[in-house]
Amino acid sequence: MLSALLIRNIRNASKLASVAGPNADRIVNVKWSNGKIGEFPLIWLRDTSPDPATYTISPAMTARNLTMLEFDVEQKAKKLWIDGDEDSLKIEWESGLLSTFPSEWLQIRNPSDQKAKKRRRKVYLFPEETWGKEEIERKLKRFSHEEFMKNDRVVHDFLEAVCIDGIAVLKGAPKGVRGAVEDIGDRIGMIKRTHFGMVFEVSTKADASNMAYASNGGLPFHTDFPSLSHPPQLQMLHMLQSAEEGGNSLFVDGFHVAEQLRKENPEVFRLLTTHSMEYIEEGYDVHEINGKTFRFDYDMCARHKVIRLNDEGKVNKIQFGNAMRSWFYDCEPAKVQDIYRAMKTFTEHCYQPRNVLKFRLEDGDTVLWANQRLLHTRDGFKNAPGKSRTLTGCYFDWDIVKSRVRYLRDKLTLEQNQPSA
């Protein structure tokens, strides 16, 4: 269901005035009374026709009935006309099916309208801007944990912020109380299980199996699990016990750094986007499954390109981590030195003050961020006597998070919501 505001604005804009075609390219041209035009592929109109023969829509299912094996992609329209009383485009197909396309239906999906295209892009919840220190300090969004747990609009706004900015914070959960990660996870959807289990704990310990647990010192900027073929796309940490001093959280937008390199040092950018490397991680983790202690031994190895680009040449994925880099399998040995220099340059850019977001998680605070976009770390810390800096955390995938956002947009009929068909 579209928001009432969006439908009202569209309906008030104009009425359907005329239709022509299809032309030689099988395009149907529609014109509205305000002069706007729309160019609609005929076969696409048939494929998306909002009628019971084309779609099954019930409380349990929304699904297309047409299958490509049986779908006639050359089928023709017998007749097209504007129904002025209904303000709709009607098409009678050679098969005898009658399709009705209301004016607002066409305007929302108009491929010739830049506003419609921009609005449609928002359904995918892709970030369109990167950030440096000044930008994120100005717009970092913080929400009440209590309101998040009881108000769906706050859930939507929090997760939308994570989708767009790559990070957002929840404040004010009961201090020192375990279970916040599970509760937040239930509000979002399914937590992603990894070899760390469903929910993990971060604190210093003897015989540590992970660098995060080995000492109170600072850690390097990294993304989690570059050694996995499908690394977790988001990570969440909840502060149970903060340090007496230090232990601040630091983040850098890897997309932003990559864009800086593309403009300021294109040769480094080229090296890091055209050569791949392996990441290996060996060890074990101990966690509970169904109330029983479980030790999982692992030997992870994945091949990742450091940066991937979309067709506009914009960075849309960063993969850096503190797992061991063991082999450059697709380049000449003489190039390896240059690649190390490029990685060094990338790392130095990550630590430049203009790029680093730094803040302190207080007891009861939670941060959720994009693990494949933001690099993260903590600085060194000192514990209070008898206390140990302790966090609990988990991972999510974008599919679950973005699904929740879109579901809530529909449920709350927010202006940003979009029809699926």
UniProtKB/TrEMBL annotation:
Keywords: Carnitine biosynthesis, Dioxygenase, Iron, Metal-binding, Oxidoreductase. Its cofactor is L-ascorbate; Fe(2+). It is an enzyme of class 1 (oxidoreductase). GO terms for molecular function: gamma-butyrobetaine dioxygenase activity; iron ion binding. Its EC number is 1.14.11.1. GO terms for biological process: carnitine biosynthetic process. Pfam families: TauD. One of its GO terms (cellular component) is mitochondrion. Transmembrane segments: none annotated. It comes from the Eukaryota. Pathway: Amine and polyamine biosynthesis; carnitine biosynthesis. Residues 143-395 form the TauD/TfdA-like domain. The keyword Acetylation does not apply. Belongs to the gamma-BBH/TMLD family. This is gamma-butyrobetaine dioxygenase. The lineage of its organism: Eukaryota, Metazoa, Ecdysozoa, Nematoda, Chromadorea.
